């Protein structure tokens, strides 16, 4: 009896690659019988690559090679002394290089969305399609800092964190909590370089934003859309985790985009 594709995705052997002192764990469906451009799926903060299992199954069934890393400090990857946002992107880029991928489609949620945007900025010729789901956009200037530092988590954000613990306790327990302070510090600091480099992105780009429970500033999102040469924004009625809470809507938007 043939093993279901879902089980194959879940049970894929985890490989770890060392980049200096950091070991990045990932699962790879393999290039055998795969067609088209490989797809790299990058999770958000506090999760791990298993958040993508359902979507990865559909991609593999469509004949795509799928690579699913755990970001540093998450899942089975190393805990480290440094969690700068640009380092998450650098790890994804190093993984692509080590796997000798000449062209990729990148899909990233939240922190993973920021990571894949950095890859597309740093190596535009590598990225064919870019999907950024509910990525909290960096500050542009110090004028925004006061508003962010006085902002408390919303009820939807707290519900998302609690629900993630209930649904994926393994991922939450593996998460390096020391990252939280570093992440908050970076969210409070302007990142004008990231904004300046958006125009370096040449990939056809799809940005997904949630509704009232989401974490994307609509005004800044419009500036992002205008800065990227080929960028479409699709809105959803749910909160921060679209691929989890509205999977069918997510798949209906992303599958055709990656297939084109």
Automatic annotation (TrEMBL):
Gene3D superfamilies referenced in this protein's UniProt entry, alphabetically: alpha/beta hydrolase (3.40.50.1820)
Annotated GO MF terms: hydrolase activity
Pfam families per UniProt: Abhydrolase_1
Domain of life the protein comes from: Bacteria
AB hydrolase-1 domain span: 38-135
Keywords from the named record: Hydrolase
UniProt protein name: Alpha/beta fold hydrolase
Source species: Nocardia suismassiliense
């Amino acid at each position: 009896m043939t093993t279901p594709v879902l089980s194959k995705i879940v049970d894929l052997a985890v490989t770890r690659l060392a980049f200096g002192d950091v070991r990045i764990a990932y699962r790879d469906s393999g290039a055998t019988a795969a067609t088209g451009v490989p797809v790299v799926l990058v999770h958000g903060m506090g999760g791990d690559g298993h958040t993508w299992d359902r979507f990865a199954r559909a991609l593999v069934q469509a004949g795509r090679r799928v690579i699913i890393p755990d970001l540093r400090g998450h899942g089975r990857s190393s805990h480290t002394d440094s969690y700068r946002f640009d380092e998450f992107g650098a790890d994804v880029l190093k993984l692509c290089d080590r796997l000798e991928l000449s062209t990729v489609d990148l899909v990233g949620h939240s922190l993973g969305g920021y990571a894949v945007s950095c890859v597309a900025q740093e190596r535009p010729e590598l990225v064919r399609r870019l999907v950024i789901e509910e990525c909290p956009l960096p500050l542009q200037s110090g004028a925004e800092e006061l508003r962010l530092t006085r902002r408390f988590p919303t009820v939807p954000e707290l519900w998302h964190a609690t629900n993630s613990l209930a649904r994926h306790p393994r991922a939450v327990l593996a998460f390096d909590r020391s990252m939280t302070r570093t992440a908050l510090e970076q969210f409070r600091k302007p990142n004008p370089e990231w904004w300046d480099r958006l125009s370096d992105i040449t990939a056809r780009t799809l940005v997904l934003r949630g509704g009232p429970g989401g974490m994307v500033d609509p005004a800044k999102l419009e500036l992002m859309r205008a800065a990227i040469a080929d960028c479409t924004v699709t809105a959803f009625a749910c909160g921060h985790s679209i691929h989890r809470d509205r999977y069918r809507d997510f798949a209906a938007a992303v599958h055709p985009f990656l297939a084109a």
